[in-house]
Amino acid sequence: MARLDVTVGRTALKNPLIAGAAEHMIEAGGVLGALRAGPGAVVVKSINEMERGKDQLQRAEYMLLDEQWREIPWTKDAPATAFMATRSGLTPQAFDAWLEQTAKLDRDAKAMDAYAIASLIVADLDKTVAMARQIEQAGLRILELNIGTPYASQAKGVVATELDPARVTMIVSAVRQAIKIPLWVKITGQSERVPELAAAAFAAGGEAVVMAGRLLGFIPDVETMQPFLGTTLGVGGYWNLPLTCHWLSVSRQALGPDKPLIATNGARNGLDVARMMLAGAHAVEMASNVMLRGTDTLSSALTELDAYLQQKNINAADLVGVAADRRKTFADMPLRTDNWKKYVAG
Ligand SMILES: Cc1cc2nc3c(=O)[nH]c(=O)nc-3n(C[C@H](O)[C@H](O)[C@H](O)COP(=O)(O)O)c2cc1C
Description:
Layout: E1 6-8, E2 11-13, E3 17-19, H1 28-36, E4 41-43, H2 51-58, E5 61-65, E6 71-72, E7 83-87, H3 95-111, E8 115-121, H4 125-137, E9 143-146, H5 165-178, E10 183-186, H6 194-203, E11 208-211, E12 215-217, E13 233-236, H7 241-255, E14 261-263, H8 270-278, E15 281-286, H9 288-293, H10 296-312, H11 322-325
Parallel strand pairs: 3-4, 3-15, 4-8, 8-9, 9-10, 10-11, 11-14, 14-15
Antiparallel strand pairs: 1-2, 5-6, 5-7, 7-13, 12-13
Helix pairs in contact: 1-3, 4-5, 5-6, 6-7, 7-8, 8-10
């Protein structure tokens, strides 16, 4: 049997799979169902103090697209290449109710040797800090701070898409000073500076960095000549996996192997978890595929990861960064004179 356990900073996880936050983590039943499927942790749907964030959820729309950019039915058996375009919002619950529910879920998770992780999206920093304190006081064991949502330019003041390392330092320091529990910082992928944003988060006391949030997109419908869902959307999908792995590998190179990175964006199965770990992730979040297809996705990803590890005769923790550390520079590549000619059609 391969060992699946990993550590993320101070936190030991029974396996590297984390069910990431989205709408299927709003209700307690959704979180419990995910926990029962066996991941090391589940991140609950994020909250902040903004009524407009809740309002945004009630205006949210979701669509599934195929590789021809056509809308396809939202079903569990959608093709593996199906991906989501959305306008989402924040959890509809009041903070007190969300906190009570999340604290109880983390107690339930503890009994399953797992974690239910609280998630805050920054809007007003003073309010974030006050909520972070309450989260710690309620007994929650980990806080994920999302400063990298795709939507800040579209929903000003409601959510954060932090692009400046100095602002990351300021925000993470403020939250870090308020609480002692592990603080994981989720950053945007909408930047050339992902490793610098991660460095700023670590320097300010972030214990792990989750990279990298979904991107903004705009998809015209050729039939109606309208934008799908009327506007700019949050997009992500299997096609984002190489970008996630790129950011992981260059961040590992820049920050060193001891800074725990957590992958998000594009993982669909156990082999994708392995790919992201080989690129430098200590753990991997999977969100939209679980929202679409249900919690079996989590258990089957764990089975697939375990089979891969057994086949390779390696433990999960030993995957971290193996491919990243073997990355060469373009200058290291051998001369291949006229190789390009084999790749030109006709
Ligand atoms: C509909 C939807 C809602 C989401 N809500 C949240 C959220 O509340 N908090 C958060 O941190 N991330 C949220 N995310 C982002 C996911 O956690 C994840 O980072 C992203 O979808 C990329 O990973 P994936 O390819 O596994 O879906 C949401 C994503 C989607 C598609």
